[in-house]
Amino acid sequence: MPNYGKVRPGDAFNRSNAYSASWQNDVTELVNRPTGSGAPDTALKSSSGLVKVRNMVEVAEGEGDPEPVDLLRGHYVQLGAYLLAPNPDHAEIKHDFRKPWFEGKLYDEEMDNPIAILTRAARGGDGEEVLGDIETARVLGVCTAIVNVTDTDHWFAKPVDGEYVLESDSSGPVQLLARAASTGSQELSVMLGGGGGVTTEAALLKLTAELLARSDSTTPGTTSSYDVVKGSASGAIENWSAKDIPSGTYVGVIKISGGWVVWPAFC
Predict the structure, then answer these.
(1) Is there a contact between 106 and 149 (Cβ–Cβ < 8 Å)?
(2) Measured between alpha carbons, how far is 119 from 99 in angstroms, rounded to an integer?
(3) First to last CA, the chain
(4) Per-residue confidence (pLDDT) for residue 194, from 0 to 100
(5) With b meaning 16 or more CB within 10 Å and e meaning fewer, what string describes 61-74?
């Protein structure tokens, strides 16, 4: 049992009991001990990388109106507005912005907001008076996610526009910690990276036609004539540089706000 006595006169500062490993470990266990429990909680619950989200996901079936959806552990949401914003009608209420509580929306690839993976199931509201549940979700670190595996060679996953189930891919903000044994929707251990959940997709292409330079500050040169060498890309790619790129050139592209852009550093 460590001795937590007072530091005596003349003790070296860095030899204080308060700096011993046993003291730090015991304090950590005490802080994480469940309320009313007489024993330390051996499964320490760190709040690092966690936020609170309200399930506000709505999905339309066919041509009907969007309806609230019950989300399972492992589904993801896109962070929306801060839930604890000050109310101008109640200026006397001081909100604590150190508490990261956000709206949990259906993913929209046109938005740059990060994603969060639910660590607990969250019921949806009724679309009228009853609001969706507020539950814990992870924006950084290791957790369980539901992933639609399309290729067992994939080691990453990404959010998909209008969906709440991750899809496996050759790149993305979510890393699979083990290769899936089969395709289909399944729970997998994943690590949500330091990119904050924003998808970064890249591909290497070989141009089969000249890609012209931008014509002005708002109009890039574009082409759809290329062969994919590595990764996956489709549709037109944009050249925002002031130089034409000859046919046969290998170029790197990244996906920004739904469109593919030639990245100068890869040219």
Answers:
(1) no
(2) 17
(3) 63
(4) 42
(5) eeeeeeebbebebb
**Ramachandran region, residue 49 (left: φ > 0; alpha: ψ -120 to 50; beta: rest):** left
Residues 6+ apart with CB under 8 A from 164: 57, 59, 69, 71, 75, 76, 77, 106, 107
**pLDDT value at 17 more than 60:** no
Show the tokens assigned to 130.
């009853």
Q: Please, is 205 exposed, middle or buried when counting C-beta atoms within 10 Å of its C-beta (0-12, 13-18, 19+)? A: buried
Contacts of 225 (CB under 8 A, 6+ apart): 207, 208, 209, 247
Q: From edge to edge, which strands make up the β-sheet containing 237-239?
A: 221-223, 237-239, 259-262, 250-256, 202-207, 226-230
Binned at pLDDT 50, 70 and 90, residue 129 comes out as confident
pLDDT band at 27 (very low <50, low <70, confident <90, very high): low
Average pLDDT, the chain: 80
Q: In terms of residues, how long is the chain?
A: 267
Asked whether the predicted pLDDT for residue 44 surpasses 50, the reply is: no
Strand partners, 259: 256
Report, as an integer, the average pLDDT of 220-248: 90
Contacts of 114 (CB under 8 A, 6+ apart): 78, 79, 139, 195, 196, 197, 198
pLDDT tens for residues 207-231?
A: 999 999 988 888 999 999 999 988 7
Chain centre distance of CA 5: 45
Q: What pLDDT sits at residue 6? A: 55
